[in-house]
């Protein structure tokens, strides 16, 4: 999965990293600095004036406080359940799907929470800021296609496997030859997924641009709620047709790699999960 930020998704995805386990080696460091990182990311897309910045930062502080006090405890429990299952050897398709469903539900809660702030921020954009945003989207679209679609398909498959291997080794250490071959087989099974992913992303961004063109309409809040909270409604047909198959391929990969894992790899994974859980448990906002 690729996590290049877009304007309205920046807050959502940066908060949601805590339940997605995207492979960041310093998750708690990022979390502690979201009040700086999120505004900085937004400035890649538009130049907020001083009044907009003040209002957004005030809303952001409230969102981060809400997330830490109401969502982070659930995330800690999620980590503990996952850690316990890895340690006991009780990782199967049912438990993986349960953890995945919990993570997806947590992201949905965040999407609902930040929708009013997103509507307020985007409705206040002037035409110049909207043009900056559209230009940034166009630039990113070209860069994505150059990086992920211009190479021949066999190279795309190899690169996808390399990216997955790098993420996995951050959690469990060096993969065996058998595990690396399994990752490559997973990437082959996804085939032309880069194109489906990019076309789907482009369609979502275009829907956002069209909504922003009508940002002063009474229907704008409802359109933004749909874009943020009901993303499946905006999928391309090609992406929709392969989503469940690709999801199953990811679960099968995780199960096979776990079955192939050594005691050393499992111990490293358990240690990483425990370290993250302890770091998050020490956050002051949980004790206030």
UniProtKB/TrEMBL annotation:
Protein name as annotated: Lipoprotein
Species annotation: Stutzerimonas nosocomialis
Record InterPro entries: UCP028200 (IPR016875)
């Amino acid at each position: 999965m690729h996590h290049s930020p877009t304007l309205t998704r920046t807050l959502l995805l940066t908060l949601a990293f805590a339940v997605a386990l995207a492979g960041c080696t310093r998750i708690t460091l990022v979390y502690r600095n979201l009040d700086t990182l999120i505004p900085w990311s937004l400035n890649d897309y538009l130049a907020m004036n001083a009044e907009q910045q003040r209002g957004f930062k005030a809303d952001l502080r409230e969102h981060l406080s809400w997330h830490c006090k109401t969502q982070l405890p659930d995330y800690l429990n999620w980590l503990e359940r996952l850690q316990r299952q890895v340690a006991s050897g009780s990782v199967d398709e049912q438990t993986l799907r349960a953890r995945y469903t919990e993570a997806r539900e947590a992201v949905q809660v965040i999407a609902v929470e930040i929708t009013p702030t997103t509507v307020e921020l985007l409705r206040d954009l002037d035409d110049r800021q909207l043009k900056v945003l559209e230009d940034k989207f166009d630039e990113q679209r070209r860069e994505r296609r150059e990086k992920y679609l211009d190479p021949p398909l066999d190279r795309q498959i190899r690169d996808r496997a390399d990216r997955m291997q790098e993420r996995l080794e951050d959690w469990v250490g060096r993969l065996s030859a058998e595990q690396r071959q399994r990752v490559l087989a997973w990437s082959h099974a996804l085939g032309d997924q880069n194109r489906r992913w990019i076309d789907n992303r482009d369609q979502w961004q275009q829907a956002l641009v069209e909504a922003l063109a009508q940002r002063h309409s009474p229907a704008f809040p409802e359109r933004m709620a749909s874009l943020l909270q009901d993303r499946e409604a905006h999928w391309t047909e090609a992406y929709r047709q392969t989503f469940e198959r690709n999801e199953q391929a990811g679960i099968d990969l995780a199960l096979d790699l776990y079955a192939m894992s050594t005691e050393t790899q499992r111990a490293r994974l358990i240690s990483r999960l425990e370290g993250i859980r302890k770091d998050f448990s020490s956050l002051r906002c949980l004790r206030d």
